[in-house]
Design a protein that fits this description.
Elements (H helix, E strand, L loop, with lengths): L2 H16 L11 E6 L1 H8 L16 E6 L4 E16 L6 E20 L4 E24 L2 E23 L4 E24 L14 E11 L5 E5 L1
Antiparallel strand pairs: 1-2, 1-9, 2-3, 3-4, 4-5, 5-6, 6-7, 7-8, 7-9
Length: about 230
């Protein structure tokens, strides 16, 4: 999967500046953050009904390198799942897997409003990569339909955010952003005959490609806990 290569590339860029973090009385230039929205939901029992969808952070880990006039910002997140389902009518094992990785890299400029509050604005380049396989999506006419799907979303995202300083090193941040994106999804049908006498001919297994583009605006709906090192 190509996503691991992107992770290694980002980590190799971030690691050298992390090991050179400032100490003592100098200004702390390195900042690491993690999305704590899901934790807050659990503690305060938000969205606990059976019909609600649990919050899932896009970027679980963020990192900023502060310079004199602006800051470099990065973020990375993802998830993976895998399940093997035994088929009751044969000895087949149905595979269902999913992998997704999201990363961003950009710049921002901060403005100190007062001792506790700060404002920042900037722009990100965002990329999302996903791989999904489902050997059994639905069955029809003696054929089982599945798919092997690969997706990529590229985005350009202006943003602005607010920061509340809990202390000299610890802060809470949230932000809004506008995204212009381009999406490409490749879907390979997986067709399996499950009847000796199907009621119609074998469905097409040709590769399907879907492209789309658009814009969207996201209001602040998360909190990131940050620590300066």
């Amino acid at each position: 999967m190509k996503s691991i290569n992107y992770f290694i590339l980002l980590f190799s860029c971030i690691f050298p500046v992390m090991i050179n973090a400032q100490s003592g009385g100098e200004i702390k230039k390195n900042e690491i953050g993690t999305d704590i929205t899901s934790l807050i939901e659990r503690i305060l029992s938000f969205n606990q009904s059976e019909f609600s969808t649990p919050y899932s952070a896009t970027y679980q880990v963020t990192y900023k390198r502060h310079f004199n006039k602006m800051s470099l910002r990065t973020g990375i997140g993802g998830n993976t799942s895998s399940a093997d389902v035994d088929n009751n009518f044969s000895e087949e094992v149905i595979k269902r897997t999913s992998q997704k990785i999201d990363y961003r890299i950009g710049i921002e400029k901060g403005i100190e409003l007062n001792r506790r509050w700060g404002f920042y604005y900037g722009v990100d380049f965002r990329h999302s990569i996903s791989n999904t396989r489902n050997d059994s999506w639905f069955s029809n006419g003696g054929w089982r339909h599945g798919y092997d799907r690969k997706g990529s979303v590229l985005g350009f995202s202006p943003l602005f955010g607010l920061e509340f300083k809990i202390g000299d090193r610890i802060a809470l941040q949230t932000e809004a952003n506008f995204i212009a994106y381009f999406s490409r999804i490749e879907s390979q049908p997986i067709i399996t005959q499950i009847s000796e006498n199907p009621s119609f001919e074998r469905p097409s297994s040709d590769l399907e490609i879907a492209k789309s583009s658009g814009t969207t605006f996201n209001v602040p709906n998360f909190l990131v806990l940050t620590v300066k090192l």
